[in-house]
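2024-03-11 09:14:02 DEBUG pipeline.ingest accepted 1 chain
2024-03-11 09:14:02 DEBUG pipeline.ingest length=406
2024-03-11 09:14:03 DEBUG pipeline.predict start
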Amino acid sequence: MSAPLDENTRAIVLATVPALKAHGLAITTEMYKRLLATPAIRDLFNLSHQQDGEQPKALALAVLCYAEHINDLGALGGMVERIAEKHVGLNILPEHYPYVATALLGAIGHVLGDAATPEILDAWGKAYWFLADILIGREKQIYEGNEASPGGWTGWRAFRVRSRQRETSTITSFELIPEDGGTLFRHKAGQYLSFKLDIPEHGSQRRNYSISSSPGEDHYRISVRRQDGGVVSSWLHDSVKEGDILQVANPAGDFFLNEEDSNPIVFLTAGVGLTPVISMLGELAQTRTNRSIRYVHGADTEALAAFQPKIEEFAKDALLTADFFYSKEQAPTQNCLSGVTIHSGRITPAWVRQTLNRSATYYICGPDSFMRDMVDALRTEKLPSAQIRYEFFGSAADPDLVLSAA
């Protein structure tokens, strides 16, 4: 374990906060420019997040959070765990960290110019390696834990597409089984798979997709929404067929059901954000839980609400009650199914506050703006942070959401 950062180093890092607020995005953009010049490092990244600017923005916010909390690093525990899980999913190894150090310090010097004094660069070098050593240690624990678990593995493992199923006009599910015929690692409901894909004319690509199948099944299922202009999602929808082989990392992620929690559950999802929740519902159905469950989902229309028949089946079996919101479709004047309510419009903060269950734990997944609205609504009602859990899709770029996600 790294020695604690000395007081002088922490003071210098903290003093750079104004510069990071002013120039953080320029620094991380320059840093990625340097990193992506190295092919072995470039292939580790989701390049779509470089093109839309989300990854540099997210990293700039993470660096700022680190600097602002340099005297209270315990507040960053959740963020560090998410980074470690993401790194394990992408098979980041200790030998990759020096490249990042060189690129980060070089970018700081390039952007800040003469303001990046030797003292500042030295302090940030120490701060970087302090955090890097924590991440390397935690990632080693996760790698070793995965490899020691039944069906677990490190590195990339070949999986065959056993079947594909169109869920809606924009979402397709793929069932994956190990090509080696071996045991399947039991994932935690809510986790994701990371993929190393070779796309014709686009080269090596990395992507994460939530597992939508229940733990303990003989396959993993991912349910992928076609993104407008999305290189990988379009390739999966248009080109990947039954029998194709995909390279997959061991399941990862820290968004999953709290097994020690016996509270009622409210799931708040929008769009393809339902995928990890479908896995959670499958696990709850397996265990025949007696916990009260409310499923709330927003989509443009009923035809775009993936897995709705499954949710209706759960409602019929009294596992849950469900609310479907359709923003581009009128709700029927009378609901036909017991336990299922259809609404017109979007899920609003006002509705969440009006229906608040103070004893429940809320699990939230969807676009960043949706999560911000839902989290803010719950915080406004003073719901304890331990009862608000959420997952990011893509590269989260909201500093408060990044720091406080559970």
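2024-03-11 09:14:41 DEBUG pipeline.report The chain is about 40% helix and 20% strand.
2024-03-11 09:14:41 DEBUG pipeline.predict end
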